[in-house]
Specification:
heterodimer, A: mainly alpha, Non-ribosomal Peptide Synthetase Peptidyl Carrier Protein, Chain A, 3 helices, 43% helix, B: alpha+beta, Ribosomal Protein L22, Chain A, 3-stranded antiparallel β-sheet, two-stranded antiparallel ribbon, 5 strands
Chain lengths: 96, 126
């Protein structure tokens, strides 16, 4: 498991991001069978704002990357992963 | 420019779960220092309810701004709950959006309907 302590965000592999996202979703009772890449946070997984905040905070805790998932669009899990990777790769952005 | 209105309903138990799960430092991504300090002063039994009102105010403000909180940090909207009174202050991107809409005055109110709180934010031209 990648953590803020042992991994530079810019080095985050997609596997680590996927693992962290699946763990965050599992804590909300969403199993891997539902957590498919094109599942949308609100429409498909039926997450509310507080649950989306929990995912954001979990990703920060697990990966050391600060991401805000509230967007004009209802993000898919694949888009969340891309957002984490982009944020991690932006110098001085998304770092705690 | 018309009146801008946003309403949100927050389950206090969900905020309680966040409060139990995350440290004060982690919650700082969502709640301002002032909000967290006032919630702490409200006492352990009322802390989650206090933060639920703050959370609802942010969500309601986002709706009133017409964009939700896309591009707006959680802490760009600060709620101040004092007894039954509630006010909101816009900062950063929220203030920019507010100004672009011609909104100069914001008022807020809330009601408790256990286990949820209902928060309303209204804005209009100064």
């Amino acid at each position: 498991m990648a953590t803020a302590e042992n991994t530079k965000p810019a080095d985050l592999p997609m596997d680590a991001i996927r693992e962290a996202l699946l763990a965050a979703l599992a804590d909300l009772g969403i199993g891997a069978e539902q957590a498919v890449p094109d599942a949308r946070l609100r429409d498909d997984l039926e997450l509310d704002s507080t649950e989306i905040v929990q995912i954001s905070l979990d990703l920060t805790r697990r990966l050391g990357v600060k991401v805000k998932l509230e967007d004009a669009a209802d993000l898919t899990l694949a888009e969340v992963g891309d957002l984490v990777r982009r944020t991690a790769g932006t110098p001085a952005a998304g770092r705690r | 420019m018309g009146v801008r209105v946003g309403i949100d309903v927050v389950d206090v138990r969900r905020i309680g779960a966040l409060v139990d799960r995350y440290s004060e430092g982690e919650l700082a991504a969502v709640f301002t220092a002032g909000e967290r300090e006032r919630a702490a002063r409200a006492g352990a039994a009322r802390r989650a309810a206090h933060l639920a009102v703050c959370f609802g105010a942010k969500e309601a403000a986002g709706k009133a701004l017409g964009t939700g909180l896309a591009g707006i940090d959680w802490c760009d909207v600060e709620a101040r709950a004092d007894g039954s009174r509630l006010s909101v202050a816009m900062r950063g991107a929220a203030a920019v959006r507010s100004a672009s809409l011609g909104v100069g005055e914001w008022q807020a109110s809330y009601a408790v309907a256990d286990p949820v709180v209902v928060v309303q934010v209204v804005g209009w031209g100064a």
